[in-house]
Write a structure and sequence with these properties.
The complex is a heterodimer of chains A (639) and B (475).
Chain A (H helix, E strand, L loop, with lengths): L9 H10 L4 E4 L1 H8 L6 H13 L4 E6 L2 H9 L3 H11 L4 E6 L12 H11 L5 E4 L10 H9 L3 E7 L8 H15 L4 E6 L6 H14 L4 E6 L6 H10 L4 E4 L13 H10 L9 H12 L19 H4 L3 H13 L6 H15 L9 H15 L7 H7 L13 H8 L3 H8 L10 H12 L5 H9 L1 H14 L7 H4 L10 E5 L5 E11 L5 E7 L2 E7 L16 H9 L2 E3 L4 E6 L6 E2 L4 E7 L2 E6 L4 E6 L6 E2 L4 E7 H6 L1
Parallel strand pairs in A: 1-2, 1-8, 2-3, 3-4, 4-5, 5-6, 6-7, 7-8
Antiparallel strand pairs in A: 9-10, 10-11, 11-12, 13-20, 14-16, 14-19, 15-18, 16-17, 18-20
Helix pairs in contact in A: 2-14, 3-5, 3-12, 6-7, 6-21, 8-9, 9-10, 10-11, 15-16, 21-22
Chain B lengths: L5 H13 L5 E5 L6 H5 L2 E6 L9 H10 L4 E2 L11 H8 L3 E2 L4 H8 L1 H10 L15 H14 L3 E9 L2 E6 L2 H19 L4 E5 L5 E9 L5 E13 L2 E7 L6 H17 L4 E9 L5 E7 L6 H8 L3 H9 L16 E8 L1 E2 L5 E2 L7 E3 L6 E5 L14 E9 L2 H14 L1 E3 L5 H8 L2 H5 L6 H4 L12 H15 L7
Parallel strand pairs in B: 1-2, 3-4
Antiparallel strand pairs in B: 5-6, 5-7, 8-9, 8-11, 9-10, 10-13, 11-12, 13-18, 14-15, 16-19, 17-18
Classes of the chains: A alpha/beta (639), B alpha+beta (475).
Chain lengths: 639, 475
């Protein structure tokens, strides 16, 4: 039977799939990387696997989108477009698939319509299959992406986010599918997006059947996670009931929170009399043989906690958020509170906030709210994003609105007025893209490419940092994980060999290091048999000037009340709203901090004049780091 | 004795040593650190140069005599095609490894050469004899160009190696350039004779290696294509020619043997032809020396040309017949020069080769003379090493060539390697489709990034990962 190849239109794909006696497989490499390896699987590794993956004849390779675009530039230091281009060279036939968060694109909050359209247009040059979702299943939030994908002639795959609970009935979802078809027409693939891996095989089977009963011609793509260890069961039920495409991943890298192994899917379904169209089982095995040796280099990014979590059915955190949740718990020192957060507070918060779908950015809101509720008291410390959610700025609550007392906690006694004034989906206006280009040009010192501009429009500060990284360090994707993710330094005399972006082979031998009187360290490297010295600046300790002390939460609040505004938690500065010498009143927004993908405004506790602004946009702050100082009227009187 | 320097000196010294003879190198002061004087069994300093001592017959003969030299190989360039040199050798009782004085003289004189070939019925590009001096010469030239149409080539009779040639496109230019060409020829070659040839548009440069002993046997060793040239200087040479019509190639080879015989040729030589777009071929000239690109012929025939040259000069018979010469596979040679192709091939002499790593493996041959730490003398040519690759098929050869170019690691001077990498990736080159207009019609070959810094950028990150014990940009 003919396989689906890159370049086929949606019409051709649908025709083949409807006629096909069997099902198709999407290799969700990106989702695996995000769920079980904190999105750190490097392009180097994907390039190693490319040949065997191409041979395996998947319907598609999900290799971009989700949080990966951000992590590409933030951590993996690879251009998300270059990544696709290089993979395409090695994989001419396999469709590339993305996961797009509708109006939130590949980020965490809504983008202006013209940014959305430009971004989709640019990525559509490389991406064939567009899975689009909204965490509130609010269709208008996906519409601009729908239109651009169809305009670009690419394959549109709208999603219904799936969850469990009394409201999550077949009727609700079938109706939702109808609403989507009304907007898109019937030339689509439909994704059932089970990002938590929720429900039983029976539940998924029933849902697929209900949709197929109502829309017999629809091609369903089932996406699940294996957090409870039972996704093979759900996939089987989905295919048996008529789903045509399923998601799974290479077994050499499968973990606990991502997709299950492709090979297990093939083996299981074969016994049910369903075979995967075109899939070359030998190549599936070969891919994992190629990848097996790489996994050890990613150990640092695997979850601190090993083992399946059937408790996902209680807390419903999506696979993509599991690893990072544990990481935050370890770093934040609240690991002991995890059972309480996951099994008690999180389900409660979910019910209280409307039992919507726990997926980006909604899952981050649920998670941070639960964490904050356990630490600071229930709804005592509402994040800016939670407030936006309550105001309906992301979209309407799908089933019911949270209780009034939560609004009161979040907005104070005047909450009704605020809701009336600011409630509803925020209409975001187009931005002046030419102006953004000019700004970027100034920051880069040269004219940006169209792709650089698009990357910049997603995550401005991180993009600029990445472009500067590229200029300073070159194309580092050529370094294998054993080097790029090395922990503990290299051994003296160790030789590192690699081929650079231009195809040239190099050898770097680690030489001795030497610290001089000023604290500078010279690192000697034999680069292509030629000695070079790299000087590392002394570590900044300046113990004298600012004593590096850890301020308690109370101390930070106390300082804020006298105008010494400090960062209340580890965060990045993403916005500064005031200038030096500006008069501020109590409650004025001073800066916006971003942590754990959530933005939190810092408000003035005192009235006065802004004096010294210590923080800059993009700064990474520790709790207690200085933001700015406000001279209060009292200070002046004392003068 | 090897009366030369650089890679060809090494090449000849090796052959001398393989034959069990003692090799004597000569060198000028700027070559004091050159490899050929280390490899040779003896080395003689002949003066401060630069170049003038390598060009001094008197000095070299004196050095040869004082070292009891039996034979001299002139290499290419310098004195290789100066008829006075074999004459001086003969007078000094030293064997000259190359054709006799008269052959070099006759074939070095372009007009004389044309006459010999015309008499032997060798097809030739229409051209004139030496132009008469003054207004009479202009008249002859104008008549010629009226008959054969522009463009035409104005050539110095004593020129060669791409020098002393100018392209003329109209009468005005002709009047203007003729006296200039004359005075330039006088200055460059001490001979102000010039003549005119019709220009063959976009020809292929096809040449035939010949070898003749003193007993009347002349054989050819197949064709080479040297069409990829810059200002008539060869950059890339292949063997055999990619022309598919093997009958045509056979005819060219037979004609070359005929031409060599007509000139009473002895020892190694090259008969050069132009092949036009209709596959007509025209005799161009005979080079009376071993050529830079002889390596490609050696690769596809398996015959050591320099060894053969020496044996013939010592009076031996050719040890193989025409039937023994079998061509197998393809060979490509690229001249890796210390030059900046993006800056009009500006030489990079004076720079030190701080890193030198070269490729190896099956089908790879290197004829070079640089080593890590070597400072390239500014006063000689910029050839660092000739990379010659052999492959059973053309595709295999191109793949091997690409691999070798990528495996090179040379820091210090800029080289022609990135430019060559563009050539091997060019679809026309990959098809074997090129003529002498190749560089002019493929300007994109000059577009490449000089990314010598890429590795040092990556090394900086590795230094940081090493120092900070983790990659600060990836955590």
């Amino acid at each position: 039977m003919n396989r689906i190849v890159q370049g086929m239109s949606i019409t051709e794909v649908l025709k083949d799939m409807r006629a096909a006696d069997g099902y198709y497989v999407t290799n969700t490499a990106r989702d695996l990387s995000q769920s079980d390896f904190k999105n750190r699987i490097l392009l180097h590794t994907d390039l190693l696997a490319a040949k065997a993956r191409e041979k395996a004849n998947y319907f598609s390779l999900e290799i971009t989108g989700g949080a990966s675009v951000h992590v590409d530039i933030l951590r993996k230091q690879v251009d998300p477009f270059l990544k696709l281009k290089l993979l395409r060279e090695k994989m001419p036939n396999t469709m590339f698939q993305t996961l797009c968060r509708g109006v939130n694109l590949f980020g965490y909050r809504p983008y202006p319509p013209n940014v959305i359209r430009l971004t989709v247009r640019e990525f559509a040059k490389y991406v064939d299959v567009w899975r689009v979702f909204d965490f509130l299943n609010h269709i208008p939030n996906m519409q601009a992406v729908f239109e651009e994908v169809q305009k670009a002639g690419k394959i549109l795959e709208p999603s219904i986010c799936f969850s469990t609970g009394p409201e999550h009935t077949d009727d609700y979802y079938v109706k939702k599918v109808g609403e989507i078809l009304d907007v898109t027409g019937d030339e689509i693939l439909l994704c059932i997006k089970n990002h938590g891996g929720l429900g039983t095989p029976k539940r998924i089977g029933d849902l697929v059947k209900a949709i197929k009963d109502r829309y017999p011609d629809i091609v369903i793509h089932y996406h699940g996670h294996n957090t409870d260890g039972n996704d093979i069961g759900r996939i089987t039920a989905a295919v048996v009931n008529g789903a045509k495409i399923v998601d799974a991943a290479d077994h050499a890298f499968t973990g606990y929170f991502g997709p299950p192994p492709i090979l297990s899917v093939l083996q299981t379904l074969k016994d049910y009399g369903h075979h995967a169209v075109g899939v070359d089982e030998e190549a599936v095995i070969e891919t994992s043989e190629v990848l097996r040796n790489e996994r050890r280099h990613y150990e640092y990014f695997e979850s601190q906690f090993k083992g399946f979590l059937p408790t996902v059915q209680i807390h419903k955190l999506p696979g993509g958020a599991m690893g990072s949740s544990f990481e935050q718990a370890v770093k934040g020192g609240f690991l002991d509170k995890m059972p309480e957060i996951l099994h008690d507070e999180l389900p409660k918060v979910q019910r209280e906030l409307g039992n919507y779908w726990s997926v980006t950015p909604g899952s981050q809101i649920l998670w941070t709210t639960a964490v904050s509720n356990v630490h600071d008291g229930r709804y005592e410390n509402c994040s800016g994003d939670l407030k936006n959610l309550l105001l309906g700025q992301y979209g309407p609550f799908p089933f019911y609105r949270p209780d009034d007392w939560i609004y009161e906690k979040a907005f104070g006694p005047d909450w009704q007025k605020i809701l009336e004034k600011e409630g509803g989906v925020e209409e975001i206006e187009d931005i002046d893209i030419d102006r953004e280009r000019t700004v970027l040009q100034e920051r880069l010192g040269h004219e940006p490419t169209a792709q650089q501009l698009v990357t910049y429009l997603q995550h401005p500060n991180d993009a600029v940092n990445f472009f500067k990284f590229e200029e300073e360090f070159g194309q580092t994707y050529v370094l294998p994980p054993s080097i790029f993710l090395k922990h503990g330094g290299f051994a003296l005399g160790e030789t590192i060999e690699f081929t650079d972006h231009n195809g040239k082979d190099h050898s770097i031998e680690i030489g001795p290091q030497q610290k001089d009187a000023d604290g500078e360290t010279s690192i000697y490297l034999n680069v292509d048999y030629h000695q070079r010295v790299y000087t590392m600046a002394a570590e900044v300790t300046d113990a004298g000037a600012v004593k590096v002390e850890v301020l308690s939460k109370e101390e930070i609040e106390e300082l804020a009340s006298i105008g010494d505004v400090r960062a209340p938690f580890s965060s990045n500065v993403c916005q500064i709203d005031v200038e030096a010498n500006q008069e501020v009143a109590v409650g004025d927004q001073l800066v916006v901090l971003e942590a754990m993908k959530m933005q939190t405004p810092v408000l003035a506790q005192v009235a006065g004049t802004v004096q010294k602004i210590s923080a800059k946009i993009g700064d990474a702050l520790k709790p207690g780091d200085k933001l700015l100082k406000i001279a209060t009227k009292d200070d002046k009187a004392a003068d | 004795m090897v009366a030369n320097r650089g890679e060809i000196a090494l090449r000849i010294i090796r052959a001398i040593q393989e034959l069990g003879h003692t090799s004597v190198a000569i060198y000028e002061t700027p070559d004091s650190a050159a490899l050929h004087i280390r490899v040779a069994d003896e080395a003689v300093w002949i003066g401060n140069g630069p170049r003038k001592d390598y060009l001094s017959i008197e000095t070299i003969i004196k050095a040869a005599k004082s070292h009891g030299v039996d034979a001299i190989h002139p290499g290419y360039g310098f004195l290789a095609e100066n008829p006075d040199f074999p004459k001086a050798c003969e007078e000094a009782g030293i064997i000259f490894i190359g054709p006799p004085y008269e052959v070099i003289r006759d074939l070095g004189d372009k007009v004389m050469a044309r006459k010999i070939m015309a008499d032997a019925g060798i097809p030739m590009v229409p051209g004139t004899d030496n132009l008469p001096v003054g207004e009479e010469g202009v008249k002859v030239a104008l008549e010629f160009s009226a008959k054969y149409k522009y463009p035409i080539m104005l050539k110095a009779t004593a020129g060669g190696g791409g020098r002393g040639i100018r392209l003329i496109e109209n009468d005005g230019q002709l009047r203007e350039q003729l006296p200039l060409a004359r005075s330039e020829a006088k200055a460059a070659f001490n001979n102000d004779n010039v003549y005119i040839e019709k220009v063959v548009i976009k020809p292929k440069h096809v040449e035939v290696q010949i070898m003749a002993d003193k007993f009347g046997t002349t054989v050819h060793l197949g064709t080479r294509d040297c069409s990829i040239q810059r200002r008539n200087q060869k950059l890339v040479e292949i063997a055999p020619s990619m022309i598919e019509d093997t009958d045509l190639l056979d005819r060219i080879c037979e004609t070359a043997v005929q031409a060599a015989k007509a000139a009473n040729y002895f020892n190694a030589g090259t008969v050069e032809f132009l092949v036009d777009r209709d596959y007509n071929f025209y005799f161009m000239e005979i080079n009376t020396r071993i050529q830079v690109e002889h390596t490609v012929t050696e690769m596809i025939t398996g015959i050591d040309l320099v060894r053969t040259q020496i044996k013939l000069a010592l009076g031996m018979k050719l040890s193989f017949t025409q039937d023994d010469v079998k061509l197998r596979g393809h060979a490509i040679e690229m001249r890796i020069n210390a030059e900046d192709p993006q800056n009009n091939f500006m030489p990079e002499g004076g720079k030190t080769v701080s890193v030198y790593r070269s490729p190896g493996g099956y089908g790879v041959r290197l004829d070079g003379f640089v080593y890590q730490g070597f400072t390239i003398p500014e006063v000689y040519d910029s050839l660092l090493v000739k990379l010659t690759v052999f492959g059973f098929s053309w595709n295999e050869t191109v793949d091997r060539l690409r691999r070798c170019l990528r495996n090179y690691n040379i820091t210090g001077p800029k080289t022609t390697i990135p430019f060559y990498l563009n050539i091997v990736d060019d679809p026309d080159f990959q098809k074997g489709d090129f003529d002498t207009s190749y560089l002019d019609t493929h300007p994109h070959l000059f577009e490449y990034k000089v990314d010598s810094s890429e590795v040092s950028k990556l090394a900086k990150l590795i230094a940081e990962i090493h120092y900070k014990k983790e990659n600060p940009y990836a955590i």
